[in-house]
Batch of 2 targets.
Target 1
Amino acid sequence: MVVEELEKLLEEKKYIEFRRKIQDMPPQDIAELLEELESTQAIIAFRLLPKEKAADVFSYLSSELQAEISLAIDDKKLMEIIDDLFFDDKIDFLEEMPANVVSRILKNSTEAERKLINQFLKYPPNSAGSLMTIEFIDLKKERTVQEALDKIRREGQDVEMVYNCYVTDSKRKLEGIVSLKELVLAPPDAKVEDIMRKDIIYVNTHDDQETVAQIFRKYDLIAVPVVDSEKRLVGIITVDDILDAIEEETTEDIHHIGGMSPSDKPYMSTSPFTLARKRFWWLLILMISGTISAYIISKYEATLQQVVGLVAFIPILMDTAGNAGSQSSTMIIRSLTLGEIKYKDIFKVIWKEIQISVIIVIGLATVNFLKIHFLEGYPVEIAFTVSIALMSAVCVANVIGGALPIIAQLFHIDPTVMAGPLITTIADAVSLTIYFALATHLLNIPV
Amino acid sequence: MVVEELEKLLEEKKYIEFRRKIQDMPPQDIAELLEELESTQAIIAFRLLPKEKAADVFSYLSSELQAEISLAIDDKKLMEIIDDLFFDDKIDFLEEMPANVVSRILKNSTEAERKLINQFLKYPPNSAGSLMTIEFIDLKKERTVQEALDKIRREGQDVEMVYNCYVTDSKRKLEGIVSLKELVLAPPDAKVEDIMRKDIIYVNTHDDQETVAQIFRKYDLIAVPVVDSEKRLVGIITVDDILDAIEEETTEDIHHIGGMSPSDKPYMSTSPFTLARKRFWWLLILMISGTISAYIISKYEATLQQVVGLVAFIPILMDTAGNAGSQSSTMIIRSLTLGEIKYKDIFKVIWKEIQISVIIVIGLATVNFLKIHFLEGYPVEIAFTVSIALMSAVCVANVIGGALPIIAQLFHIDPTVMAGPLITTIADAVSLTIYFALATHLLNIPV
């Protein structure tokens, strides 16, 4: 309703009223609104924003709209917006922009800033370095609380995070942390040194964002300092950026577990072609790997010719083994993500999966035997064959599902990418092989 | 290494040195250490903690160890710890404790506190009410900035979150928000009214934690106020609790997608029996639902008797359809979680899935036909039958996978619980039925 109303104001060129209507809206909501307008209108609406709000709104726009706006405005206006962005938002923006926009911005930046931007663009994606911002308050330990608060008053306006201040020495090495709460609560003439905490939780520029997220969760932080290899403070990561990073990582993991290439754009605004591309290759690989199962079955064609009833149990075997494998792999993948399981635990995991399997297969095989033999009236040999095949297949699938993600991680392969397709393929092949081998022997069928 | 060292100090009864070693450790690390000790030693170590650290460490312990410690210490010591906990940690603790511990605590609480505790225990799990804490700074709009800061100095020590202060009227209705940053940066004689923001983002006590998480992400918050049905401010939720809630929800979703009941305890410290129980029922249900596929196959036994080679393609069909269905359902489930898709989008989703399917199946069916006919030398009728069955099965699986999670959500069923097993079963049944029906007709086999 709000969108339509504002759209109408724009159409009727009632710009003053439009401006009045949006002035109290949070920047995130204005950005959402702009995304829903068509692009010429979105650009007009963006131009109407009060100067102090423009950069804030800009930082929440999709990179597509950011690019369109950047191309539509002149250098002066563009630089005004860019200069008002927090440094981490500026880097995010530059990473996504077409080359001509990037070069316009670099051309209009100072030498020092160009150097800094280039340095930040070099941090690997998903590293702490790529998430951090350079706007923070640094204090010297010899100062008093009053002097520290005065500094925050002077510099705080342009700093994203003032709630944690960082105490550094003359070489920019991190010596302590003091929160704004501690500063406000301390007597004004106390020394920063006396109230700062020295047990500092920090991360390194090359740490993975998953590690950073674990640290935020464990220590209940709202910001964490980032240091370089010489332990110099180079930036901070704030909790809102970690929330976004966690959302992205989780989407990626869930898409991988669902067997496709992850998509970081919303489903509704992604074209069917792009979505099809993200799914096609995995399906193709799985379809082709199904050839292994097909080969196993065709090898036992003679057996099947004799007892065609055996075919009926192929889906049950394959599905149950596949599901068991995906249960154990999903569980282990999640534990790896949360840092609960390490490489060295692999044998403990295998042993636990064996124990779990024994408990599960006794139950499943019993139900299966009773159902096939008594309820459906198949002969005891067939019920027995199916049940034994089921037991072995579930055990193998569980153990492989448990071990494979850890092995993948050991070789620096994302466990979510590798586990799914491989486990399905292996579980299928194992369950079919055991099933037919058993059937051939137990039912005394000549191959 | 640290753990062993500290364990040794405890064994040798070098308590003073132990105390000295741990005094600078963050409470989260001390809690982690206690969890690794055996329980009698953990209780001794806990007693050795300095009084001001005990409650903090206690709030990070597992509920098992919390219960053991609660039973080992006397009422006075227990109440000291409980009184030092933040209110949300207190409620979390009480929810997990055995009845005798809870009654000891309630017996030693004041009438007013008992009432408040009971009220909080009634909020449904995973609701905003169950996540919130009652310690926050509320201000009156007539006050000056100086008076507000003085109040924060007086009350701030015992308050978890001082970075956002909430302005309420005489009826406790929320009127505005002012951050500590804004207070520190404002002139001391300004009125709170003049600097507070009135565009308040808030949640209701009954809102689901997923909704709350979405709001935190969208608006980059570090705390959000919680109001009751009369818009009175009853508590706040801090970002660290939302991080924990997101972790829990994600684990739950991923476990559901992997086809099992979610487990909220770490894998390594959960017994094989418990883990087996979480997996068994789903496997059993899936195994039994496989009977449908078995029935379809047995109905076409005559067809198979004639062309036993058809069996070889059952795994490829089932796996590809199953995987396609899990791709689309996983994608839609994630979009529902992130609030990107609403109920009303169901027809758009179905239409998009049809478009995606068409693109994908043309590619898959072509590869499949070429492979079976030219590479593996099967007759053209079989290659054609398998390819057509594959195309139809993938389309159906994609559409069902896209629609089912939305329908589930519409009926207030967790889409992750329902989607997985149902889609596999339906995809299997559909692909087999189409395959055999087509084969019977195209290959002119008498049924």
Note: Residues 380-410 of chain B form the longest helix (31 residues).
Target 2
Amino acid sequence: MTVFAPDDLTVVPVSLGDRSYEIKIGPGVLAEAGDAAKALGARNVAVVTDQTVAGLHLEPVMASLEAAGINAAPIIVPPGESTKSFAHLEKVCAGLLAARIERGDLVLALGGGVVGDLAGFAAAVLRRGVRAIQAPTSLLAQVDSSVGGKTGINTPVGKNLIGSFHQPSLVLADTDVLDTLSPREFRAGYAEVVKYGLIDDTEFFMWLERNWQDVFAGGAARTRAIAKSCASKASIVSRDEFETGDRALLNLGHTFAHALEGAVAYDGTRLVHGEAVAIGLALAFRFSASLGLVSQAEADRVVDHLRAVGLPTRISDIPGEVGNADRLMDLMAQDKKVKAGRLTFILVRGIGRSFISTDIPPQNAKSFLEAELAEPVPSFDD
Amino acid sequence: MTVFAPDDLTVVPVSLGDRSYEIKIGPGVLAEAGDAAKALGARNVAVVTDQTVAGLHLEPVMASLEAAGINAAPIIVPPGESTKSFAHLEKVCAGLLAARIERGDLVLALGGGVVGDLAGFAAAVLRRGVRAIQAPTSLLAQVDSSVGGKTGINTPVGKNLIGSFHQPSLVLADTDVLDTLSPREFRAGYAEVVKYGLIDDTEFFMWLERNWQDVFAGGAARTRAIAKSCASKASIVSRDEFETGDRALLNLGHTFAHALEGAVAYDGTRLVHGEAVAIGLALAFRFSASLGLVSQAEADRVVDHLRAVGLPTRISDIPGEVGNADRLMDLMAQDKKVKAGRLTFILVRGIGRSFISTDIPPQNAKSFLEAELAEPVPSFDD
């Protein structure tokens, strides 16, 4: 699945028939943007990015595009989750039209998950669909949101409730740019890396337990962890592009995570997505343990690893109030995966043994959340 | 292709693999909405309609849904082209979320092209795609916009520049509701009916020349004209769902039409879409004649038929100023079909002999428009 090139560049293919594409992972791959856009036949490329990323990485990308003879136009949005809104979607679309992005041209999303989701969605709906290159600059975006074609924006009642499936034509995951992330951001993205081990790869989880410090430090272990994560996601997406079955496994921890993010109104100072996922993973294991599906010891092992890297694992780790179990249940009921009023949970029978459950009575989930919320507040690193 | 049932109900199939669906055409088919939604497995149905249509047709549709045991929620938008906006898309999406429309549920678009395009687009992006029933209530929507899966909204720089391909799961074209249209609205929709004859069906055009008064009067000739139009469109869409080839033929007259609508800022008091199409069809024939592709006599025959039913055929038929040739060329350059900066025109070698042209120098189009704009203003029915 994964091809290691001499210069540490790793290429992960995503097999989706005539929507297949490659994920290029390695130090400095952003410099390939211009040649890649040219190879795809684009004349005009709009680079959508946020103010923070623009200051760090926009100039070399623009230079690469211009060196390849491409007309490149930057579209800069504010950083933060609140940018995934109808208002910013409209602004980005207006920018793409002003840049005369036509069918055959490209949108290049340069940034984290927010930029990737917003710019990818704009590409999906501009002229009923133009192509996109995802150039993720956060660990979370490199291992999750840039791969698989999910795009979208948030609404007041839930995250990502408006969007499209729109596969990129290429993903450029430059591992060098991760050095500009804060430790908190890198850690948050790491929660999604752990997720792939928990879904169906016990061995990868154990490798992460042993090597997480090298992954955080950078170099070959980091590239390998990202490539392994992308290959896991690509494999699941190839089997089920439109989430009618197995793709839902990728939502391990996410039904809880989305509700928690909703509960703090997507306030990134209190909780970023990866942190919500870390708590969600811990909750998925503890909920499964409470249902007798997995041993408490195995749930503890997952929680221990997440805490070892400094991630939160309890609702009470979130600063401030998040509301009661009824509020969280209501937020979970708005999840996209709701079918005929039934909640879908991804549960586990062990580390690397997740499954989709659609028959858990809501009362069980509510009782579990009530018990979690009643726990004494632990200190963050006790 | 077309199956005539004893009770005057006509069913036109649209063959698109696992996205195939039926168009049911005939008097009273709206009463089938409830049974149809139930057969599709929906629990909740949001009926998106506008204030005008709501007063005429909403109640029986709601009654039909409720009689079938469906939770039905109406979402009512203002009438008119300006409703195809980001602001109303956001409102409709909020309404769909409030109505708890989940995957498996349905959006029912009850109205003309504006409601169909807006509600269809909202369905396309809600939770990354829920199913839709199109229940077109204008002639234009019945023969064109409700069939083929194009959805979208307008932007200040052009019509339908933001949208999705999202095939409906069913189209219910109730021919009775057309009796509530104004003569102007019916006539405008008729321009799209004529278009199908001009694209590739000389015989249908000649049938319309002989029978147009019966089509306007209602009854079997009307149902037959609608069914024939839907079958023509379905055939082309089945060959080329995403408009990479032949589907562009459906845009005969539309590159000019969209520019003219842009030039009047979508002011429906001055020009409705079907009228713009009528002028666009006439311009396509006259432009083809100016290029020596078709005889002036054949162009005159098309113009004569359009004028006989009371449709406009010249830019000067539009009340007020529309700007000069440069302005119209700039508006045409924003057309979605622009590729690598080249305008695509649908031209004709005869009635029923249209073809896609991508190699017309812009200067020829501009000269043609300058000549058209310089014509002495004819009275509307001279």
Note: Chain A touches chain B through 36 residues (CB under 8 Å).
